[in-house]
Amino acid sequence: MAFELPPLPYPTDALMPHISETTISFHYGKHHAAYVKNLNDLVAGTEFAGKSLEDVITSSDGKIFNNAAQIWNHTFYWKGMKPGGGGAPTGPLAEALTTAFGSVDEFLKTFAAEAKAAFGSGWTWLVKSDAGLAITTTANADLPMKHGQTALLTIDVWEHAYYLDYQNLRPSYVDAFLEHLVNWDFVAANLG
Q1: How far apart are CA 174 and CA 122, in angstroms?
Q2: How are beta strands 132-139 and 122-129 bridged, if at all?
Q3: Please, where in the chain does CATH 3.55.40.20 lie?
Q4: 166 pLDDT tier (thresholds 50, 70, 90)
Q5: CATH topology of domain 91-191
Q6: Mean pLDDT value across residues 27-50
Q7: CATH architecture for segment(s) 21-79
C-alpha cells in the first residue's frame, strides 16, 4: 500500500492574506508531495513497505526517516492552522499552558522567540511528555515522536514555509501564525 498525500483541511487560498495560495501551492503541492513520492520510491521492496507512517518513522533513519517524518510533520502543520485562527486558547488548554509557562501570554512569547531564533531549517513544537508541557525545536525532519514526546502544535520554520510571502522576515511569519492561523481546537484535541 503506497503512501498518499493527505488532503489539505481547507482550500489552498483559505489562509490568505497570512499565507498565500502561491506559498501553499509550492509548500503543499511541491514540497509535501515530493516527500510522499520519495518515500514511496525508497520503501518499495524493503521491509518498510506496507508499514504505517509512524512505524516507518520510529524504525528508520537516513533518507527513509527524513521523507517519512516530513510527511508526518507537514500533515500535522496543516492541521494546526485554520482560517480565522490564532489569538489565545481557552479552557483546559489555557489552564495547562498557564500551569506550564506561567500564563498563556508567556507561552506565546516563548514559543514565538524559539521559532524566530531557530537556526537553519526545522520545526518549533509545543509538546507533552511525562514531565509536562514544553517547547522544543527540532532540526530538519526531526520530530517529537522520535523523543518520546506527543506533539500538540508545530510551526514549520524551513524557508519554503514562508519565503515567498515574507522573504527573510521569519519573525513576521511567526507572528502571523500565532496571531491569525493557529487552530487551538486541534491543539486542545492533541492535549487530550
Answers
A1: 13
A2: antiparallel
A3: 91-191
A4: very high
A5: minor pseudopilin epsh fold (3.55.40)
A6: 97
A7: Orthogonal Bundle (1.10)
How distant, in Å, are the alpha carbons of 4, 48, 50, 64 from that of 45?
17, 8, 10, 13
Q: Do 114 and 125 form a contact (C-beta atoms < 8 A)?
A: no
Cell numbers linked to 109: 512569547
User: Residues 57, 143: contact at Cβ < 8 Å?
Assistant: yes
pTM value is 0.97
To the nearest whole number, what is the mean pLDDT of the chain? 97
- What is the band of 121 on the pLDDT scale with cuts at 50, 70, 90? very high
Is 163 within 8 Å of 157 (Cβ atoms)? no
pLDDT value at residue 1:
72
With cell 496543516, the residue in question is: 78
Smallest Cα–Cα separation from 98: which of 108, 86, 84, 112? 108
Q: Residue 10 corresponds to which cell in the numbers above?
A: 481547507
Strand order in the sheet with 132-139: 132-139, 122-129, 150-156
> Band of the pLDDT at 172, cuts 50, 70, 90?
very high
